Amino acid sequence: MTSAITVTGLRKAFGDQVVLDNLDLTVARGTVFALLGANGAGKTTTVKILSTLLRPDAGDARVAGHDVTRDADAVRAAIGVTGQFSAVDNLLTGEENLRLMADLHHLGRREARRKAAELLEQFGLTDAGGKAVSTYSGGMRRRLDLAMTLVGSPQVIFLDEPTTGLDPRSRRDMWQIVRDLVAGGVTIFLTTQYLEEADELADRIAVLAGGRLVAEGTADELKRRIPGGHVRLRFTDQRDHDKAVRVLGHTAPDGDALALRVPSDGSVRSLKALIDQLEAQSLEVGELSVHTPDLDDVFLALTDDKVATA
Amino acid sequence: MSTPTLTAPALRFHPLRDSTTMLRRNLKRMLRYPSMTVLLIGMPVIFLLLFVYVFGGTMGAGLGGSPADGRAAYANYLTPGILLMTVMSTVQGTAISIAMDMTEGIITRFRTMHIARVSVLTGHVIGSLIQAMLAVAVVTGVALLVGFDPAADLLGWLATAGFVGTVAFAFIWLAVALGQASGTVETASNAPMPLILLPFLSSGFVPTESLPAGIRWFAEYQPFTPIIETMRALLAGNPPGNDLWIALGWCAVIALGGYLWSKRLFNRESKL
Questions:
Q1: Does this entry carry the keyword Transport (chain B) (predicted)?
Q2: Beta strand residue intervals within chain A, DSSP E
């Protein structure tokens, strides 16, 4: 058994609104899989079905080798879920929240205390452990949330937009925690609307739009799917601009009348060649900027027309 | 991680253990949020004082005593109704705390965990039952201070406690369902309002004979009248007779209905 999650032909509709339309995906054990999509693309619905909160209308979904509808209890025993909205008890302290989880996993009293202390330490919450969660910051709350998910040592962890609403530093902390988890052999199913996050963490990325997968692959594979990078040149006057269009050959117009785009792989060598050419023609360039394709380009290119036709 | 496929023993449910854990959680929450409990006990105490000291003289005279000992007589008449009101007040608290819980993510977390699902609800029910019994004890204490003078012996007191516990248990299950059905905390605090007001349309504050025909008919057939009459009889050291069985019948129906409704609500799919 090599895949942690297998989904085939998954469908879900709420009334006549189709949320998931024939979804297929496979997540290998011990990897991070990122499901990327805009708001309303069906990410949370997918997580809810895979974590047994919702029943699919059609299709098969297996998590940790168990069917999510026929064998939901076995799935629940194998997974951990950290959702978009913090699933912590605000009236209890951080430590009490962890002990609550330990009790529900039937750890012994001593083991529960040890595990709670260990997780508080690991997530930088030791000092706050005795304080009520209602006093925690957003980042602390999210860390505690994930720590609670880890009490049961799940094989598969679902992280539904784990960094939405976090400041950059908390986000980076969260990423490091995820990397450590994967190093420990856990499988992670991550949903996010941040391409940077998927790029940083995921082994494989799937782009979801309008309930359908529009692309799947590694970050590099996805980047290769869209037109390459370019150099944007902005001239100080129209005469130079027009001359550059004639001299440089393969250029593309830009939104700005004085600017144009020259295809480029962004390497120093090609930049130097371009600059030499501009100098030889004594063209006055006001601004020069290099654009390499990032996942944002991929995302926008892939989701735009799909959403429009959906 | 070389986690082997889960074996059968790991998948056993522990409803008792999980319920105890959930009960501990709910008791802690009550301690952390004491203003709720104080409020729940405060309301019936205010009604008790209001009725004994403001209306008590006149009401007592209506029961057939002089205004002087009328107040004491009315305190005796009134207390069972106030105690039932105390139970209903804590039941309202149950509905509110269930609704609060449902709006927080932690219930969603519980749903994705391999735990005995009913324990989430039983934890609330047993916690509320403890809260209700404490509240009733406090209000009884205040009633004793303002002139309540029951004739019951120890057995009568124990029977009353057992009976009040049964009534509380039944209505708490109803509140658990109401709290879940409400969707918001605001609705949940209003939904049990009829339970707070129904004692007024029973034999709780005045004998039903003094009511006009329509209301009297309603008062005699609604569940709170036999419940109050049973408490009144037990506290006075009299046999409750038929009222006890009618009251227990109502409790059985309400408890079962509340339990089945709650279970159905809890197992329904989460919304998008």
A1: yes
A2: 3-14, 17-28, 32-36, 58-63, 66-67, 79-82, 156-160, 187-192, 204-209, 212-217, 230-235, 252-253, 259-263, 285-291
